[in-house]
Amino acid sequence: MLKLVAKGFYNELINYGVNEADVLAVAGHLLDNVMQKSSSTNKETEYYNRLFAIKDVKDEWAAAKRLTLQEVSIAPLSPSLVPQIVNWLREPATRESFYPRFPDSKEDLANYFQAPTREYFSIFQQQKLAGIIGAENIHLESARLEMRKLVGDPELHGKGIGKRATFLFLYHSFVIRKSRKVFLHSLDINIRNINLNGKFGFELEGVFLEEAMIQGKWRDVVRMALAGPVWLELFS
């Protein structure tokens, strides 16, 4: 894990235009911070199980096919929303953040969501459509599935909607669907994503080196996974 984080940190520094000589200077500053006795280094990390609990979910699934947590809810994805999703995916940074990519056309994307090995949900902030979250590669025999998420409305970014939608999706996966395992893939070694997913209980399963070609460059793909009993214990 430490080698993985170091590689991701190095890649991000290079992407920000830091040259290799200055990377060594950054390493020196990191060591300086380790040696300093600062109260901030002893500050306890805030984990999501201090913010969310299973009992906080408003479960209306049996009656209305809806789960709600702190004004964020998920419900089965309506085909009528596909054109909006296509518009979100036209943004290159959004489209290329997924591996593999979603289909480009309305017809292909509608067929994609209807596949028997997939189950997608709309994400709502109160009554406003914020994005989608869903299951890919649903394997009934082994009770596992892959999670994918998109908060597509730029005005709703940074409001914690994705975190709450993720919690609701995991509730659906482990409490309603009774899945054994949820896994996900992330392009490259994104330290922030690894950290956020880890706070839900996800653990690193492996790295697929140079697995995906994005804008003419080979990118690594990280796989993380979460076991049902772990999540249930963390958020009980």
Structural write-up:
The protein has 236 residues and is of the alpha+beta class. 36% of the residues lie in helices and 28% in strands. It contains 9 helices and 9 strands. A 9-stranded mixed β-sheet has the order 1-2-3-4-5-6-7-9-8. A hairpin with a 2-residue loop joins strand 8 and strand 9. The longest helix is centred in the N-terminal third of the chain and has 16 residues, at 20-35.
List the helices and strands and how they pair.
Elements: H1 2-15, H2 20-35, E1 58-59, H3 61-64, E2 67-69, E3 72-76, H4 82-89, H5 92-95, H6 106-113, E4 119-125, E5 128-139, E6 144-151, H7 161-176, E7 181-187, H8 191-198, E8 203-214, E9 217-227, H9 228-234
Parallel strand pairs: 6-7
Antiparallel strand pairs: 1-2, 2-3, 3-4, 4-5, 5-6, 7-9, 8-9
Summarize the structure.
By secondary structure, this protein is of the alpha+beta class.
Query: How many angstroms does the end-to-end distance come to?
Result: 27 Å
Percentage beta strand: 25-35%
CATH architecture assignment name of the largest domain: 3-Layer(aba) Sandwich
Largest sheet geometry: 9 strands, mixed
CATH topology of the largest domain: Aminopeptidase
Low-confidence stretches: 38-46
CATH C-level name of the largest domain: Alpha Beta
DSSP E strands, number: 9
**Which structural class best describes the helix and strand composition?**
alpha+beta
What's the tally of helices? Answer: 9
pLDDT averaged residue by residue? 86
Strand order of the largest sheet: 1-2-3-4-5-6-7-9-8
Taking all Cα atoms into account, the compactness measure Rg is: 19 Å
